[in-house]
Amino acid sequence: xxxxxxxxxxxxxxxxxxxxxxxxxxxxxxxxxxxxxxxxxxxxxxxxxxxxxxxxxxxxxxxxxxxxxxxxxxxxxxxxxxxxxxxxxxxxxxxxxxxxxxxxxxxxxxxxxxxxxxxxxxxxxxxxxxxxxxxxxxxxxxxxxxxxxxxxxxxxxxxxxxxxxxxxxxxxxxxxxxxxxxxxxxxxxxxxxxxxxxxxxxxxxxxxxxxxxxxxxxxxxxxxxxxxxxxxxxxxxxxxxxxxxxxxxxxxxxxxxxxxxxxxxxxxxxxxxxxxxxxxxxxxxxxxxxxxxxxxxxxxxxxxxxxxxxxxxxxxxxxxxxxxxxxxxxxxxxxxxxxxxxxxxxxxxxxxxxxxxxxxxxxxxxxxxxxxxxxxxxxxxxxxxxxxxxxxxxxxxxxxxxxxxxxxxxxxxxxxxxxxxxx
Length: 423
Known about the structure:
Helix content: 25-40%
Radius of gyration: 21 Å
Number of helices: 12
Strand order of the largest sheet: 9-7-5-2-10-1-11-15-19-20
Distance between the termini: 25 Å
């Protein structure tokens, strides 16, 4: 029996989808434990690019069972479109994809609430993806939410109506102009609910328990990144769930002492989408080059990602919070061509040099302290072994390993699943 965990260590977009896809052949079950359709896990193979939003990244492998856990929030409309997009690949969705009854549903009015709330904040907006995820988690913690299991109850429509009516009152309270046609949105929602009913709903914590007893190998997949965790991220510019290792326990019903390996994924540099502090952000031609070469645009939102140098202070913080046992470095190929690279090793925090991640990293409090490295010119994308990598990149990798005290086991040198070097 193996229960391993894979998660992002930065502000999301680290490349988790690719690595889950690469590792899936080693596992019987791939289980998503939190987040919603704001995830955009990108997989690329056979010349085709796939973006998964709710469905776990093991769906393309023939043997793995994919579970959407209780910690996930599901938009039935987005979910239906995602399944329709997989139709051409002849995947037996019904046998390969199962859903926890305890997962919460995103209603059309949750999306409207999200838009009204963000609009009311003006310049203080947090950069929500407007998918209704925050309001859905608010209803979950406020004990008002509707769950997948409620679909099976006779009074589901009444439950829906009561919550949707409450939401409309809240939308009116925000006092912003918001044009919408709720009957039209609801028709689409209930049609998607009927499609959702065709899949198997499970009591996922029992399913996971029995799978562990049967000796199944399980990989738990997170969404977003550790620095967006609602508790440990750069609050309030965070997501609404626990993206860290603890979220796998509460999002799937797995006991902490059952988790073995914790795979932490990070980019060779740093990116962030939306608002929020970002100490190593670059505003010059170097940052623009990173964005262009790395194709740094959100796979779901299309928004441009902010780019900057690798932040070791933040990376160490994420490694420690999650108990990471193995690191996987993505997009090393993007840094090819730069004469000099920089890595933030410390912060100057209110006039004092520190090496830990403080409560507040807003620019008025934090200035990054950098160490410079010699860059490399080689094209990495065709390399297949660690020995082929340029010495400058190896030195870069070894420095990171020494600083965070965890080995880097995988180096990604391109988007395709084959462009993955095992160290």
